[in-house]
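Mods, move this if it's the wrong board.
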Amino acid sequence: MKNMENITDTIKHTLDNSNLLRALLILIMQDKNVWDHEARIFIREGMALGYEKEFCENAINNILRNAYVNLNPPVFYFKENAIKLLLTGFRIMKEDLRVHPKKMKFLELIAAANNIVRFEDTNNLKMSSDMAVLFNGRPVEKGNEQTEY
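Not the wrong board. Structure tokens:
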């Protein structure tokens, strides 16, 4: 029976890794652009999860043309994977010139789907519904207007 539990956990971790990579692709494509820093982070994260560099490069280079990606926010088996995704998403967004509202919304959907209301990362940054504390006065686009936090 213990062996079956190990197999089940292995499957759950594999699915979580796949969902984490898929969600990063969805986040990146929200503003209809793939920026250099996004590609670097995606490839680094994908390789850390055990994916081949060529697979990651192909996925990021073709994401804007891929009509078959499931765009629903993933629900993770292990909450720490959802938190890892959110932190990686914040890193990507902090390097963007503007915080895109669709990217912000997607991270909020991930948090909601995984019952994450609040957490602290290693820099003691807190996530709240508007996530303003993460961006230290960076402009956040809302429709055609911009709001300073």
